[in-house]
Structures are given as structure tokens and as C-alpha cells.
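Protocol step 4 of 6: record predicted structures for both targets in the notebook before any analysis. Target 1:
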Amino acid sequence: MAKEQKLTAAQRIEGLEGMIQSQSQNMEFLAQEINSLRQTMTALARRINATIKAGEAGGVSNEVVNKLLVDENVEELKGKVNFLIEQKVLEETKDQTIGERSFVVGRELDEEKNVVNPRMQFALASLTEEAKKAVTGKKLGDIIENFSGDGLVLEITEVYKIAEEKEQKKEFKTEEVETKEQSLT
């Protein structure tokens, strides 16, 4: 019989660390799967609600259900912008020219000016350099050709300014640092 060799403390710790890392990866994978499932369930719930609404309106068809879903998504996006305005993160501005601190709302149109996507919204800072160049300097009502690279055009429908950080917060941070420095002396 071969004698079992006892592990050193360092070897046991390494083994435990390996197990913890493996478990951590498994939990991360499960969290991603749960998030994906949550998104799927949310999409299904929205489709079911839209189907019910379409039935109440007198006609259930895929077209009607899809229109209701798009309308619901547009309202949700409008609500997010309104919330950001209420929280003073976004400000309405008289200068409707898109600049570095702009938040843009638009809609995508095809060649015949039919609405393909009724609402698209983004902060200019979130775009690629190429897209930033295409949008910067444009104004409310302007059209940007082939914005997404799919042949569609973007019509600018709203422009907001992203608010600057409030002065009082900066002052508070400065005072807080000074107070900590004073307590150290």
C-alpha cells in the first residue's frame, strides 16, 4: 500500500483558492444566465400584454402587436428622458446645436422617409469617433445620412444639454478634504 502524502498548509490553501475561483466562475455564469432569462421573460410579458391589448382593441395580428410593443418602448424611452430632466441631469437648451455635452433624440427613416425606428436616444460621448463627427454641429431637424451604416437616415428630433456637476458638490468635496487634512494635523 502506498502511503498517502499529507498536503502542506500552502498546498491546501492553493486547493481552496482554486475551488473558490471555480465556484466564482460558476456563479458568474449562472448570474448571466439568470439575467438572460429575466430579459426573455420581460420580453414575453410585454408581448403577452400587447397581445391582450390588441385583442381588447378588436384585432390581434402580429403587425398590431408589434406596433403596440414599439409604442410601449417609445414611451419607456421618453419616460427615461423625462426622469433625467427631473433629476437635472439633462437640461433643455435654446442652442439646439449638437456639441460635446449633448444628449440627442432622433428617429430613423428609410429612403422614402418612412419611419423605421421612431425613437433613438444617446449621449454624444457614447458614440464612436466616426459617429461623433457625423452628429457634431448638427441641429434640431437636421438629417444625417447613413448614420447606422445600414442606409437609414437619422432625423434629429430633440437636443438636450448634459448638466455640469453642481458647484455645491464640488465645494462640499473640497471642504471635506480640508476637514480631513485639518484632523490629521
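Target 2:
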Amino acid sequence: MNELKIEPSPDVIIDKYQNYIRIGKYSGGILTKLVGSTNSLIFSENLIITEDPPLFTANGLHIWFEEGKIQSKEMETNIADFSQIDYCVQLKPELVKEFDSARFSAHYPHIVRLLHTACLFLDTDPYKIDHLEFVSGEILNKPVGITNNNGIILADRLVIDEKRQLIFYDCLLIGRQENQQIKQSYEHFLTIPLEFLSSLILLGNENF
């Protein structure tokens, strides 16, 4: 008997695992994860995907690692090989609205903000980064975590406790379920052990 194939959620634009691509033009909050646990993320508001020729074109914030160093740039990203894309989703407006409504004021005095995007933790060969001891106990602004199974945690704030547990506040979660379907959800707070992450970055103020 053939295994029943589950149709992806309407907010899924590309899913490499399901060999699924939705051709067209998109606008609004779009998040793209390239293949690899520490490879690029693209935050965009405009996206065009064509079939002939095959081309993925996104305008927005591109974040990637280069020789163990984090890079971020507002740019146009063009990808002709769709197999480089793990997944691309249109963020659900109701989740984005909830995320925006929960953000702390930019004037809150005890939040650590960085001018430029920085990597706090990276666990991949051959590069290892661990700056968590310098920010333990602080309230950190705009953290993004990539999990070992290529999920994404996009949060408003983060606190790292003395046991190196990560406490994310007001976060959007994007990742695969046990059936490999991509799911989006919102959590007011999420506590996870550090070993669940392959990388952790703080988005710099230049991006907001």
C-alpha cells in the first residue's frame, strides 16, 4: 500500500523534504532556511519563484556564516538550484501580530542590544564559538536560534541562566513535526537546554 502523502500547509512555499515548490509572487513576512544546520536564513517581505527558468529571488535580510563568522546584509538573494533551500514559509499574520504586540519597549533600560549582528554560540566542525558566559543572566535583544534538527526560534528576548539553560520570551517557532510537516507556532516563553541548538545569534540594531 502506498503511503498517504500529506498536503503541506498553505503557508509553506518550499519544502525540500516533501519535494514541494509553490511557484508565484509573495509579499509579507517570509522566512527561508537554506540547507545545513548553520547555513543561511533569509528574512524577506518580497519573494518571486519562477519555474522557467527556475529561480528564487528574495529581497531582505540575509544572514549566513562565513569561515565561522556571522554575516548579515540587506540584499537581493538569487538561487537557481532549489535543492539548496530546506524550507520557505510565509509567516502567519496572526502569529506575527501576537509577536509584535508582545515586544518590549526599545527604551527598556536593562536589555543588552548589539549594534551589529553577532554570534553567541556555534557548534559545528571545524568552527566552535561560545560567548555565553559573558552574557549569562542578562536580558538579550532579538535572539535567533537554529536547532539541531533545523528548526528556527525567533524571539524578542533571551535570558541564559547559570545552568546554561536558554529561556526565550515571546517567540515564533518554525520547524518540522514528527510527520516531517513544517509547523509554525507562537510561545510566550520557551526553556530549552543549550545542546538543542547548533547556533545562536543576536540580530543587530542595524536590522531594525
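Step 5 preliminary note on target 2. DSSP finds one helix and 16 strands in the chain. The two ends are 51 Å apart (CA to CA).
Proceed to step 6 after PI sign-off.
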